[in-house]
Design brief:
By secondary structure, the protein is an all-alpha fold. It has one domain (1-57). 25% of the residues lie in helices and 0% in strands. The protein is built from 2 helices and no strands. The protein has helices spanning 38-45, 48-55. It is flat and about 50 Å long.
């Protein structure tokens, strides 16, 4: 999977412009969200669900290969 992450500002008309690399093809998925500060992103990644999933022995299937 190829991803492109850009932090851009909207113009005075509340529009944005992206230059999409040719290797992405003619259809892309666009997700727009407010830019968050690093601290809030860190809190999101340390939710109870994520920590429980990471610590679950049933999820360690790749360790037995």
């Amino acid at each position: 999977m190829t991803e492109l992450r850009k932090y851009i500002s909207v113009d005075t008309n509340r529009n944005i412009s992206l230059n999409i690399p040719i290797e992405f093809g003619n259809e892309v998925e666009v997700i727009v969200r407010r830019k968050g500060d690093p601290e809030s992103l860190e809190k999101q990644s340390n939710t109870g669900f994520v920590l429980q999933l990471i610590n679950d022995p049933k999820e360690d299937v790749w360790n037995d290969l």
